[in-house]
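Progress narrative, Year 2. Work on N-acetyltransferase domain-containing protein from Rubripirellula tenax advanced from sequence curation to structure prediction during this period.
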Amino acid sequence: MPIIRSFRNGDLPSLTNVWMAHWSAIGTPPQVNLPRLEQATVARTFFDPGGLLVAEQGGEVVGWSHFAASADDGAATIMAVCSLPNLGIDIARDLLTEMLIRIRAHGFTKIGAGIVRDDWFGYAGLEPLGHGIGVSVKDERFVATLREAGFVERFAVHRMEVGTMFYRPPVSREALQLRRSAKIESCRLLPPDRRRSSGLSHIDIERYQLIDRSSTVLAVVDFWFSDPEAEVLSPSTAILDLGDAHNRGELSSAESYLIAAALQSLESRNIRTVQTTVDSEKKTLSQQLGKICFESTDEGAVWGLDL
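Result:
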């Protein structure tokens, strides 16, 4: 039987090895090393070692999990559960059982599993989570463990990506008109509060605006880039934060043009891939992103349990 305990400072190399083994058994090995994992997990002002659980068996770290309070009052979120692939589902089950005990002890009344469009927990950009698609459908062991514990699927999401090399946006009459009548400006943006500033301390946010000749702002989108001094997100990857467009479930013609025009400029910054996360029910938005060359590359879901 494994021992489930709280994180210790000396665990980081083993946690990195488990993360790599877990995800390499599922798909393409992620570009993650110890500094990136450390930055995403423990190098945060809000880090609580009691929320990072380690499974140890025979003196070896064989799995780990991480939970924290979410932005919603009374709710906790499970960001990660991973284990060595040769040990079956038991390690994940033991980690989840101990997490539920601790989450109840903290007085939380709701639990979510999986992060989506993370601007809170510090994992944004960490491969293979990226912008966050909840629990990947490829992580069958974790999905089975959640079902067994009584979690239910809340909503499905998918990752969409586009390459920037030789990117050419589709030509349309509206795009030609906007190119002739409006300009694009960008500026650095700070997160809206101190907590999110800590959760995104490894991210440089740039706001792109499309402005017409009368100085009217026609469209706004944000791109997230890796901070080279606190690297979690790969420097060759950027994240498109759809913001209000995702809430509406559609892009205006000005927003589509702005995103496509920004993508053309990113190759010169050595950005090779841009990714975003879209709720699966947002069919119109997904189709519009497809028209500017985004493709769906992964699927996941957010799971929940009421205590």
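The first strand starts at residue 3 and ends at 6. The chain has a mean pLDDT of 96.
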